[in-house]
Amino acid sequence: MFQNRTEALALALPAAVFAALVFVVPVVLLLSEGFKSADQWTLSAYVDFFSQSLNRTVFLRTLKLGALVTLAAAVIGYATAYAIVSLPPGAKGKMIGLVVLPLMISPVARTYAWIVILGRTGIVNQALMAVGLTDEPFRILFTETAVFIGLLQLFLPLMVISLISALENLPRDAVPAARVLGANWFQVFWKVILPLTREGLVVGGTLVFTGSMTAYITPAILGGSKVLMLETLLYQQVTVANNFVSASVIAFILIVMSFAANILLKRIATARNRT
Amino acid sequence: MNKLFYLSAAALALAAGSAQAQDKTLTISVYAFAQDEFKEIVYDPFEAQCGCKLVVETGNSVERLAKMEANKANPVIDMAVVSMADALSAARSDLTETIDTSKLSNYDKLYDIAKDPNGDGMSVGYTFYATSIAYRTDKVKIESWADLLKDDVVSHVAFPNVTTNQGPPALYMLGQALGADTPDLKAAIEAVGEKKDEIVTFYVKSSQLVQLMQQEEIWAAPIGRFSWAPFTKLDLPIGWATPKEGQTGGMNVMILAKGSKNQDLAHEFMDFWLSTEVQTKLAEALVDSPANSEVVVSDEVAGNITYGEETAKSLKLIPSDVALDNRDAWLSEWNAKVGQ
Predict the structure, then answer these.
(1) Terminal Cα-to-Cα distance of chain A (whole angstroms)
(2) Which CATH number fits domain A60-274: 1.20.140.10, 1.10.3720.10, 3.40.1210.10, 3.40.640.10?
(3) Which of B62, B107, B285, B296 has the highest count of CB atoms within 10 angstroms of its CB?
(4) How high is the pLDDT of residue B66?
């Protein structure tokens, strides 16, 4: 497209300088706090962090909820995306619009709605009691379940959209061909659909996992301080304890976990492809 | 011609006057809440009175104290308002100066507890609040702080997190009710820890409680009087408990930054804020309960704030040195017993 590389680089320069100045430099400065102690480079802040059992619990809980939300989003996302892709064009457009709609509503409003829905007098408990599944309302709010539901609802659309675009690139004959050759639906999914849509799964999975790990509003409102996650702990460290070193440690852990999730998902996808 | 001359002279004088006024600047550091009301009732009228410029910095107390510490050598802030314990912390870090109460014409009008809360002459209380329990009178009976942990109540209780301003006072009173009145709050934290799975939530923001009360998620919660008003607007039978151990609470105070170059102006501002007129207006706007004993308000306003000499005398406040010396221990005890 360009006559020479210099021209292309010159065009990219303003964006690169902007990103370096307002993003890379501050992030490096912030993260370096966690590796310094009295002007010496050290890992002691990380050792301190993981030596406290509360921090370990919070770390594992964040990892667990992130993984569970990603897994649930993938399962529900594939079913939804496949159903939408199979629709005629007009209906498909409308359904995609419906999937995207929640993304246009502020997460604060969406999360507050969950307080009403999941409460003791909310529709979930009312329905459970109406069908006789329980006499007493269940406690859902301020539990890991509430945070899981909130995060799943928040990030599921990202997975569905990624999988729709991947499924649309799936050759039209692939699934019928596999069926004709005697594969059952599970084999069709495992051997045909999954390998051919792995890019969508990697993109969607990374978005959902990273989003779940770094979302603040949902765990803060639906979990409160009974279900501390790394991001709510980070906020507490800054605003209550004024402990920027510990906050920097948490920020670094979150960044590493996001990259690790991306690499891991890519590995899983390519490994499936080879079989 | 003459007219024109006088007009120009007047304009010139005005310009000079305002230029001079702009030279006088007072920088204050306050809580971020109700700033619209403060601007209207305190800041704007004071600027008009002193002919000076007021620079207002806001934030939570941790941030603001950290900033004062960072600028210790060359202070930016002239005066600040903080909690009693934070005032003692600032005094210990050598960030504050003794307040010259002879420059405060309204000082004698203050309730005794507000006069020199930390006993070091470094702070003056400008507002205080009671902390007690808001509860559903048709569902539960609260006569003691220990009632919060009763089997039929505890699963409908929101308890303040230890990191909030209401946390330690509530634990302090719970300890008294349990007969263990020690500054480490160990017994109270342990008792809460034993029931942590049953307690609905450990709240951080009191604004959330109104919705939880409305949804019948909770029936009782220890709160500060300043967050009481919205509960009275719910169409539910909600009462303000008067536990037999008494009510607790907190006080916010004014401090003078060490090395401030505008000490006279800072004193003038403090005196203005403590005046009967300003304190009455702040009370009527339900912003701050008055520390000035001459403030008179209607029964309706009085019902929504912490008001009157009897109330002021009955509050069991945690002494600042106890709060300060134990804060870290409370947090680690809480994290060990309740936080996970």
Answers:
(1) 38
(2) 1.10.3720.10
(3) B107
(4) 87
Residue B53 to residue B25: CA distance in whole angstroms = 5
Query: How far apart, in whole angstroms, are the C-alpha atoms of residue A117 and residue A140?
Result: 10
- CATH superfamily label, B2-128+250-309: Periplasmic binding protein-like II (3.40.190.10)
Number of Cβ within a 10 Å radius of residue B4: 8
CA distance A265 to A201: 8
Q: Which of B215, B327, B332 to substitute to test the interface with A, most A CBs within 10 Å?
A: B215
Cα of B66 vs its chain's centroid, Å: 19
Kindly report which listed range (A86-100, A238-252, B281-295) carries the lowest average pLDDT score: A238-252
CB B193 within 8 A of CB B214: no
Of A87-91, A167-171, B17-21, least confident by mean pLDDT is: B17-21
Find the CB nearest B204 among A54, A225, A241.
A225
CATH 3.40.190.10 residue window(s) in chain B: 2-128+250-309, 129-249+319-337
DSSP state of B105: T
Q: Which fold has domain B129-249+319-337?
A: D-Maltodextrin-Binding Protein; domain 2 (3.40.190)
Q: Which regions in chain B score pLDDT beneath 70?
A: 1-23, 340
Asked whether the beta carbons of residue B163 and residue A142 sit closer than 8 angstroms, the reply is no
